[in-house]
Amino acid sequence: MAAHQRKHPESKLISLGIGDTSEPIPEVIARAMEQRAHGLSTLKGYTGYGSEQGPKELREGLVKAFYSDLGIDKDEIFISDGAKCDVIRLQLLFGPDVTMAAQDPSYPAYVDTSVLVGQTQGYYPDTQQYGKIVYMKCLPENNFFPDLSKMPRTDTIFFCSPNNPTGATATRKQLEELVAFAKKNGSIIIYDSAYAIYMSDDHPKSIYEIPGAREVAIETSSFSKVAGFTGVRLGWTVVPAELRFQDGSPVIKDFNRVLCTTFNGASNISQAGGLACVSSEGLEAIHKMVGFYKENTRILKETFDSLGFETYGGQNAPYVWIRFPGSQSSWNIFDEILEKADIVTTPGRGFGPGGEGFIRASAFAHREDIIEATQRLKSLYGGKSN
Ligand code: PLP
């Protein structure tokens, strides 16, 4: 991107690349953080370390906003500085000796953290895979869901729905199958619901909508894409009391220990913002902002569709997943769009070998940039039949 800008200093680059939010945080939420920050300058309002797990009010607020009727207790929720940070803490909890499975393509942090904690064995350039990881191919050909009857047992299964980058959302039936599979094999599912708020249909928003999930699944989530907190930093992880390791010991006890050892709690200012997010006024503001990004997604998807591309996602996640014809590499497609339209996308290959041949377009951008991008894409691909 920087090299392109140096080569073409006159070009106005539009980024539909990284999944970073672009719109300001709703005022009701920013104001709560401002007041909390100011409070820190007063004797009455000053606080230092809080509890590592986060304040009771925020955990209760999350239960009410996102887990009502799902049987989640506030003490099973751990507030954090973001879902990515929780993924590495979870990998630390599991340690180097476990085997893991991850969707391919998927958010790269699952595989990367597995490598970091030493769960993998070697890298195989021919398959572009790390040894010991089970890559669950999730492509249009299998409706973005793996054939579990052909999948080997692993200790952990990372599963993200709605998925980044494909935008695919697992159905209730698919998640029931996944939970049954984990139960049969004694596996733990790490379910990432960072984009659940973007869902337009009635597929499950949380893994705990599936009966029996409390015994097999951890759920991690985030305020990043919910409220524009990518820079503020706030997330949470749910560890149900019933979830046990194979030796019968409760996972929640060990996760609490890992958390308290590696973390001193999320910023008190961020937590004040989080509390405002789960208030009724905050939730209304959040849904409005999510609606804005969803409209961006619709415009992008419609553009690629009208140009004759095969597109996926875009309904339940702020990403459109586009397949390019022939056997073009995703890096070549990325280069072409950057060179000829000054638009940054993300090559599908960055999300795993299964992403080859695709690019991801992110809807996190100002509306005028989305409109401008669609015009440039129409000029670039309008004359071609794809
Ligand atoms: N999970 C998924 C699926 C993501 O796409 C992202 C960020 O793009 C994250 C987690 C990271 O969340 P956080 O900003 O809370 O670390």
Tags for this entry?
single chain, 386 residues, alpha/beta, Aspartate Aminotransferase, domain 1, Aspartate Aminotransferase, domain 2, 2 domains, seven-stranded mixed beta sheet, four-stranded antiparallel beta sheet, 12 helices, 37% helix, binds pyridoxal-5'-phosphate
Characterization of the model:
- By secondary structure, this protein is of the alpha/beta class.
- The protein has 2 domains: 2-25 and 282-379, Aspartate Aminotransferase, domain 1 (Alpha-Beta Complex); 31-280, Aspartate Aminotransferase, domain 2 (3-Layer(aba) Sandwich), CATH 3.40.640.10.
- The protein contains 12 helices and 15 strands.
- A hairpin with a 4-residue loop joins strand 4 (123-124) and strand 5 (129-130).
- The two termini are 26 Å apart.
- The model has no long low-confidence stretch (mean pLDDT 96).
- The structure holds pyridoxal-5'-phosphate.
